Amino acid sequence: MFEIEGVIYADYDIDPRDRSMDIRLSEVLRPDLTFRYEYDFGTTTDIDLYVFGEVKAPLRRDGISIIGQNDLPESQFICEICGERPAKHINPYRIRLVCDACYDEHYKGDMKYEVLPLVNSPRAGVCGYEGSRVDPGEYRVRG
Fold first, then answer.
1. C-alpha distance across the termini of the chain, in Å
2. How is the chain split among helix, strand and coil, in percent rounded to 5?
3. 20 to 30 Å CA-CA from 50: which of 67, 78, 82, 103?
4. Interatomic CA distance for residues 103 and 116, integer angstroms
5. Phi/psi of residue 139, each to 5°?
């Protein structure tokens, strides 16, 4: 669900005032606009978005062109067990960030299934999300 300038765009039919998501972005977005996105109403991730500007991208054969991705954090997340090394994993059940060494030391056998890779996404650690199977470098905006 998107909320853009007070209008809800959704792919469900709950409120008759909501509009369909079957609309071109160019009809509802413009530079300097802030809007909100909610993903997965079971374990909702709320994301505030900002339109920096327009980008002309070639249309791919499959009809999808990814022209950007999340910015990587400026600083590394630090392991919550040792407090020293960069975190590479997340345990969503205990909300804990874990480095490779502590993962190997503290997570044995079936406990390894509790831990997910720490990925560059608002969905990190949510509903088993492990990130893209595609090299994230492929999605960098090139100019």
1. 31
2. 15, 20, 65
3. 78
4. 11
5. -95, 5
Domain limits, the chain:
2-54, 73-143
pLDDT for 35-85, tens place per residue?
999 988 788 889 999 998 888 777 777 777 767 666 666 667 899 999 999
| Distance between CA atoms of residues 97 and 134, nearest Å | 23
What's the pLDDT tens digit per position in 105-117?
988 877 777 888 8
Predicted TM-score of the model (pTM): 0.64
CATH code: domain 73-143 is 3.30.40
Question: From CA 64, how far away is CA 127, in angstroms rounded?
Answer: 25
CB 26: neighbour CB atoms within 10 A? 8
